[in-house]
Amino acid sequence: MGFIRILIELSLICMNPPRMSCLLAVWLAVVLSGIQAVDRSNFKTCIQSSFCKRMRDVVPGHSPYRALLETLELSNTRLTLQLINDNNKVRLLLELYRLQGNMTRLKINELKPLRPRFEVPDVLIADPPTEPLSLVSQDEGGVVLSLGADARHLVVSARPFRLDIVEGPHVLLSVNSRGLLAFEHQRPRKDTSSENDSEEVEAEEDAEDQNYEKEEDQADMWEETFKSHTDSKPNGPTAISMDFSLPGVEHVYGIPEHAENLRLKTTDGHDPYRLYNLDVFQYELYNPMALYGSVPVLLSHSTQRTMGIFWLNAAETWVDISSKAAENTDSVQAPSKVAQTDVRWISESGIIDVFIMLGPKPTDVFAQYASLTGTQSFPPLFALGYHQCRWNYKDQEDVRSVDQGFDDHDIPYDFIWLDIEHADGKRYFTWDPAHFSQPREMLQGLVDKRRKMVAIVDPHIKVDSGYRVHKEIRSKNLYVKNKDGGDYEGWCWPGTSGYPDFTNPEMRSWWASMFAYDQYEGSMENLYIWNDMNEPSVFNGPEVTMHKDALHGSWEHRDIHNLYGLYVQMATADGLIQRSGGVERPFVLARAFFAGSQRYGAVWTGDNAAEWSHLKISIPMCLSLGLVGISFCGADVGGFFKSPSSELLVRWYQTGAYQPFFRAHAHLDTPRREPWLFGPENTALIREAVRQRYALLPYWYLLFYKAHGTGQPVMRPLWVEYPEDVTTFTIDDEYLLGRDLLVHPVTDEGSKEVTVYLPGTGGVWYDAFTFQRHEGGQNLYVPVTMSSIPVFQRGGSIIPRKNRIRRSSSCMEKDPYTLYVALSPQGTAEGELYIDDGHTFNYEQKKQFVHRRFIFADSTLSSSNISPDSQFSTASWVERVLILGAHKPSSVTLKTSGGSVASLEFDFDEATSVLTVHKPGVNAGADWTLLFQW
Amino acid sequence: MQHNVNWLQALLVLSLSVTLGWTVEVQRPRGVPLTKRQFYDEAKPFTCLDGSRTIPFDRVNDDYCDCKDGSDEPGTAACPNGSFHCTNAGYRPTFIPSSRINDGICDCCDGTDEYNSGASCQNTCKELGRKEREALQKLAEITKEGFLLKQQLIEEAKKGQQEKQSRLSELQDSRKGHEDKVEALRTVKETAEQPEKEAKERHLKAWEEHKAALRLEKEKAKMAEVFLELDDNADGFVDVSELQTHQELDPDGDGTLTDTEAQGLLGGAHKVDSTEFMNMWSNMKEKYVSEVCPPTPSSYDSSHDEQKDSTSDKDQERDLDKDPDSVYPEDDLDEDAAGEDDEDDDDDDDHQVSLLFCIATPFIQPHHIFLSQQYICVCVYQRQYKIFMYTLSTVSSVCERERWCLLCNAALLPFSFRALEKEISFDFGPSSEFAYLYSQCYELTTNEYIYRLCPFNRVSQKPKYGGSETSLGSWGSWSGPEDNKYSVMKYEHGMGCWQGPNRSTTVKLTCGKETAVVSTSEPSRCEYLMEFTTPAVCLEPPNIDTQVHDEF
């Protein structure tokens, strides 16, 4: 909900008596509403962000940095080494770590900073465990360190400073190979610093280095102005920059959030990709502008290797990508041209803290990153159902009638959402007394239907002495401060607002306590939370966010900006856990995020629009997030701004049903668009899409369980599973869910067909609905109608579905499973099933879950326990087994663990080669075997 | 195992409404309605109701779907397209989708859908039945009374229709008379203009004199006009009965102008001619209200509605509230006004703005705006208007309300004529039962807004605590379903929405004793829904004795 700043201003003006100003404002609003795309001038380009310009102006090939090898210290866990900038004689301290799991960490800070520089806390789940670095060789040119097996070495070159990670004859990655390392050391301000201060510092510096050149201050180093906002920059220039070269790499991914293709483009000749959490009104597609969230993780992929670079810095960051055909000189073979991708990171403050994840497989990189920042939180099952949202459901009666509408039209849903209008004057944690006077009554109505609600709680707090939340935060002195030390105030939905300092643990803990049932009046167990505007959005701030010189304790907002949103979601999720005494899994949706946000809930792609292009972009946007750990991603179904045609809406439901977070949402000013408002045909199409989602909930739940356990993304680019198939490297109009479902949503208006690339030569895929078999490794032409959702199940997989679609996922809890066994050309298949209570931490704390493996081989389908130490009794059973790509058997026999043997009835469809085994009737948690006699 | 539902178990003995003291015991599989009982014979194999397949009877309700039409699993959730029959003794029987069986939510009021989910469902059928009966009873009463009221409305509408017809022909007749009056007025105007011009041209000092002369002239002209107005039968005399049409002249203020009082006003005579009348005029002129231009306009004829009108229709009210004289275009002769306007008068009258307002007929609300050196006379009838422009000098000497009104009236005669024609041509329902709504307005105040419905005209919304009115649509058409066209009104082309459509309103009419707006909502952005009760849609009540509760 980015926009509507205009409307806010409008209402403020209209409150004043003179009528003409109000009319004028209305007129303005009307005129302005004609502007549909993002107003680019509201947001900085690299040139307008002085540090970016300075850093980008650094010319390659002239690095002034030199490693002082005599300062090298090697302990069991790390290597330290001083670097010196020969231009100004300022020294830096380099730390190198070899981390467990095939990672290298590299930190650079000032050796003697004037003030401590910010190091990002709370993102790493722990101090990454290290492994010993051993010295292989050393000479005046540098040192070689061993990174363990595979002849993997870390080569430190002294002049100029450069790092190379090599494996055998191959350079995997080089640091500062282009000489773009730049580290703006802190310095006293010349015009204002007192005589004494500067003398002291200079004396100190002089003592060390006699002949350094004084650097001239450049414009904007101590103050810069963008539009009407001046950034006071009391600490002066503090930017950092570093380049990385990736020989042999043509494809890089990640660094969300951008409205961009999956594969990142080179940024030569235009702006770098920007990472700076911003509330962008009506964002444009296919450009490098910053959006709501930032994850400074870049993945590189080639047929040889997948790697990752995690630039742990929460300040405004820009990433340049360029590629070239480099001279291949590192090999013993004759020099040859190979592709190379160069990446340059630029941040405004903080330190250089980089994790180089060496793969080599995509799954390894995911595991490596997960070991650093944690995995996707395991959502309650119902959060994977369908979410019905709109800004705004007006009152309790509206909620009731929409809820009833779903029953009347037999469409399942789990959550109905309340946007900002539900609160009393946008005072979060309260309810509008006129429209939501009996929230518990409303929530109980949903409990009675086994459904839930999400209410919005944004992190801007109305400045109102009668508002308890404000009063307490102020009295506890927990607001973010402005540069002068007073409480920072900005405009947001409620008007003048304060911004709690979520970087402060005390603030987070107080915030979490607010979700207790006795604190958040009117809340109940089935009320969950949405944190919007947590970039943070400040309507009248620079670039619609907080002033960089605002203060979080001793740190500037500049240092922590991209981290703010993560903290908000963290505190809220903690609150939901605490309110249940640590029993229930939380569900919190946030718009802004950072590395590590995956641990706290779901995110969505913000305020998109009801346009086909936005439907299309939802796929690469969520894929990019999945690659960097954030699996629980979705886009507003239907598009937030504007009004979708019924065709677009249907296609969006069909797409959203196959994306992790499945929520319809709409702007306040759009016509209503509940699924039944577009005629019976479209209602039926939407119903079918939503029902498919619910049927596949067991599979989604399994994927999330595994994502939580291993860090593997739920929604995956094809190349993740087919890393050697170059065709897949640029595909972002289709994707995989787990390994076994391939989805190619229809995202073009009036489509009559789509071309689906089925990867895996030698393998097969089955249409998930017609069960038609297709060879892998081909472009498949698929004719589509309005009811088509091209989805394919991989031959060799077994997917459990629940085919009894009910009002909500909770209603389906005890329902039986149907197993879809899709045979590989070799006649085998394998799959898993995960079951627990769906909403508590008992799966973790008490090992209360069922995790089965199904294997079909040698004419036998068996169910075995993957996790023998787990315990859970489920009421669900196996209702039916479908074998896709089967022959007609002569008999099917069920053997249960008790030793009983029974012959089962079956149907065989010659046309589709589908064998349906009726009613094995075994409990889903039990061991059993089906024997097929052909 | 929970799923293994024994079919014997599933064969329920439906013991219905035992508490009511009557029992119906029918053996049939769970979820089967009585009407389909014969298809479920446990002694025979079961054939799917679509005939697609025959299965052993023990596979009916065995929690596995065999029939494509779902007919083998009426009592379980196994078939995606199945339905379950709730007997609901004491209330209405109903079908629910199979997916609602044992989903933990009580759907049937008799609770029979949750036989194995752990949900404890109360049997609420009896209570629901009672409530429904009460509601129906109440509805029947309303319908009955409403229908009687409707008959009256139809009667009144008939009369009204006739009146309108005759008024229409009157209007046609009076058209000529009006034209004559306008002509007469023009003459008066010209004669009035001429001396003024001359006076101005000749000498400024003569001005005061002239003003007096003009006043007299005016007085005479006015008196002459009043005489004409009063002389209803145009016999050249004003008599007592003619005078009695002007109750406002009542000297003792008791509201009635008696014969004696009227005679008194006429100097004791029974009737007077124009010359005699001139002598009496001074007694009356303070109180006299022109037939053409009543000074306190009563908008429409809704005297009983006045309270509402004055609170809601602010724009109009602002004009009305002012002293009629002060909003009058001030005559140059009026010294007080001239004094007040000194500032503006220094150079010219460029910025002098004043508003004139009068009502010529109940339908016509002309607004006169005095602007710059020209008078703009705006005669408004409903949403149509005509603008006349007069030069300052013309107006300065002749403008008097009655004349203006006469002018306006004449100009608007075609409008009022058309308006009447339009009204007559409106579709007020099969028996004109909706005619009484015409020219009426009904309001509903909610937390934030005052909604106003003027049937056959417009719908609007106004913030309760100040702010301008928003049109939610103008009369469009009857738009109920084909068989019930007069149940829904549609108002369209209201104010546009940001990024959205023009506002529109659907008014749903339901039978009620009162005529009132009972609810408003905005089911879709900028598409409003109003519920409106009126006796006019009450249907002839069926025989009250035949109740809906005939099943049990």
TrEMBL record, chain A:
Keywords: Endoplasmic reticulum, Glycoprotein, Glycosidase, Golgi apparatus, Hydrolase, Signal. One of its GO terms (molecular function) is carbohydrate binding. GO terms for cellular component: glucosidase II complex; Golgi apparatus. Residues 377-701 form the Glycoside hydrolase family 31 TIM barrel domain. Its main location: endoplasmic reticulum. Residues 186-218 are annotated as: Disordered. Pathway: Glycan metabolism; N-glycan metabolism. Its EC number is 3.2.1.207. Pfam families: Gal_mutarotas_2, Glyco_hydro_31_2nd, Glyco_hydro_31_3rd. One of its GO terms (biological process) is N-glycan processing. It catalyses: N(4)-(alpha-D-Glc-(1->3)-alpha-D-Glc-(1->3)-alpha-D-Man-(1->2)-alpha-D-Man-(1->2)-alpha-D-Man-(1->3)-[alpha-D-Man-(1->2)-alpha-D-Man-(1->3)-[alpha-D-Man-(1->2)-alpha-D-Man-(1->6)]-alpha-D-Man-(1->6)]-beta-D-Man-(1->4)-beta-D-GlcNAc-(1->4)-beta-D-GlcNAc)-L-asparaginyl-[protein] + H2O = N(4)-(alpha-D-Glc-(1->3)-alpha-D-Man-(1->2)-alpha-D-Man-(1->2)-alpha-D-Man-(1->3)-[alpha-D-Man-(1->2)-alpha-D-Man-(1->3)-[alpha-D-Man-(1->2)-alpha-D-Man-(1->6)]-alpha-D-Man-(1->6)]-beta-D-Man-(1->4)-beta-D-GlcNAc-(1->4)-beta-D-GlcNAc)-L-asparaginyl-[protein] + beta-D-glucose; N(4)-(alpha-D-Glc-(1->3)-alpha-D-Man-(1->2)-alpha-D-Man-(1->2)-alpha-D-Man-(1->3)-[alpha-D-Man-(1->2)-alpha-D-Man-(1->3)-[alpha-D-Man-(1->2)-alpha-D-Man-(1->6)]-alpha-D-Man-(1->6)]-beta-D-Man-(1->4)-beta-D-GlcNAc-(1->4)-beta-D-GlcNAc)-L-asparaginyl-[protein] + H2O = N(4)-(alpha-D-Man-(1->2)-alpha-D-Man-(1->2)-alpha-D-Man-(1->3)-[alpha-D-Man-(1->2)-alpha-D-Man-(1->3)-[alpha-D-Man-(1->2)-alpha-D-Man-(1->6)]-alpha-D-Man-(1->6)]-beta-D-Man-(1->4)-beta-D-GlcNAc-(1->4)-beta-D-GlcNAc)-L-asparaginyl-[protein] (N-glucan mannose isomer 9A1,2,3B1,2,3) + beta-D-glucose. InterPro entries: Gal_mutarotase_sf_dom, GH, Glyco_hydro_31_AS, Glyco_hydro_31_C, Glyco_hydro_31_N_dom, Glyco_hydro_31_TIM, Glyco_hydro_b. Residues 711-799 form the Glycosyl hydrolase family 31 C-terminal domain. Residues 1-37 form the signal peptide. Belongs to the glycosyl hydrolase 31 family. This is Neutral alpha-glucosidase AB. It comes from Scleropages formosus (Asian bonytongue).
Automatic annotation (TrEMBL), chain B:
The keyword Calcium applies. Gene3D superfamilies: Low-density Lipoprotein Receptor (4.10.400.10), Mannose-6-phosphate receptor binding domain (2.70.130.10). Residues 1-23 form the signal peptide. Residues 218-253 form the EF-hand domain. Pfam families: PRKCSH-like, PRKCSH_1. It comes from Scleropages formosus (Asian bonytongue). Residues 302-325 have a biased composition (Basic and acidic residues). Keywords: Calcium, Disulfide bond, Endoplasmic reticulum, Glycoprotein, Metal-binding, Phosphoprotein, Repeat, Signal. One of its GO terms (molecular function) is calcium ion binding. Coiled coil: none annotated. Residues 328-349 have a biased composition (Acidic residues). GO terms for cellular component: glucosidase II complex. Heterodimer of a catalytic alpha subunit (GANAB) and a beta subunit (PRKCSH). Binds glycosylated PTPRC. One of its GO terms (biological process) is liver development. It comes from the Eukaryota. Regulatory subunit of glucosidase II that cleaves sequentially the 2 innermost alpha-1,3-linked glucose residues from the Glc(2)Man(9)GlcNAc(2) oligosaccharide precursor of immature glycoproteins. Required for efficient PKD1/Polycystin-1 biogenesis and trafficking to the plasma membrane of the primary cilia. Pathway: Glycan metabolism; N-glycan metabolism. PANTHER family: GLUCOSIDASE 2 SUBUNIT BETA (PTHR12630:SF20), N-LINKED OLIGOSACCHARIDE PROCESSING (PTHR12630). This is Glucosidase 2 subunit beta. Residues 158-181, 291-349 are annotated as: Disordered. Residues 439-540 form the MRH domain.
